[in-house]
Amino acid sequence: MTDRVRLSKRMSRALRHDPARLGITLDDEGWTPLDALLRGLSAPGHPITRADVEDVVAHGSKQRYELDGDRIRARYGHSVGRVELPVADPPAVLFHGTAPATADAIAAEGLRPMGRAFVHLSSDPETAHRVGARHGGRPVVLTVAAAEAAAAGVVFRHGNEDTWLADAVPPEFIRR
């Protein structure tokens, strides 16, 4: 595992799930001072620099982070707090990867964020397949009629080029 990946995972935990562990706080929009994050991530003799964090932001595979001057936040994926990204019109179809054990419940109840702030949807079936594979077993890729859902009032936000977010998606817009 590369140093960039390790640092990104540590940043993810701090900015999405457990900021108190590093002694940082997030404001209502998920921002924290960059210098506070650097202090929290650094260990004696192993400082983390702004350049290290800028490298993760610029070259991370999932565009998880956003730098604005001297502050930073995770764009999506929070289990604490909620970043309000701008509302966006989704493509006609999006995808959601899940485990076989949850596919029937999703078909009956729709997609809910569970422990996260938003439901995460993928732009393509391959990405959804990879996401679903993390849940163990052979993943199930669900198709979401996103444009229809948006027309019916479901609000979508664009997390990054591969990720779309919604508060929830009712079952009538989900197909196996």
Summarize the structure in words.
This is Probable RNA 2'-phosphotransferase. It is an enzyme of class 2 (transferase). It is a single chain. This protein is an alpha+beta fold and 176 residues long. The protein folds into 2 domains: 3-74, Arc Repressor Mutant, subunit A (Orthogonal Bundle), CATH 1.10.10.970; 94-175, ADP-ribosylation fold (Alpha-Beta Barrel). It is 33% helix and 19% strand. It is built from 6 helices and 9 strands. The chain has helices at 3-17, 34-41, 50-59, 100-109, 125-133, 146-151; strands spanning 32-33, 65-68, 71-74, 94-98, 119-122, 140-144, 156-158, 163-166, 174-175. The strands form 3 sheets. The chain has a 3-stranded antiparallel beta sheet. The chain has a 3-stranded antiparallel beta sheet with strand order 4-6-9. It has a 3-stranded antiparallel beta sheet with strand order 5-8-7. The radius of gyration is 17 Å and the shape is elongated. The termini are far apart.
Summarize the structure.
Helices cover 33% and strands 19% of the residues.
Draw up the topology in text:
Blueprint: H1 3-17, E1 32-33, H2 34-41, H3 50-59, E2 65-68, E3 71-74, E4 94-98, H4 100-109, E5 119-122, H5 125-133, E6 140-144, H6 146-151, E7 156-158, E8 163-166, E9 174-175
Antiparallel strand pairs: 1-3, 2-3, 4-6, 5-8, 6-9, 7-8
Helix pairs in contact: 1-3
List keywords for this structure.
176 residues, Arc Repressor Mutant, subunit A, ADP-ribosylation fold, 3-stranded antiparallel beta sheet, 19% strand, Ptrans_KptA/Tpt1, EC 2.7.1.-, Probable RNA 2'-phosphotransferase, RNA_2'-PTrans_C, transferase
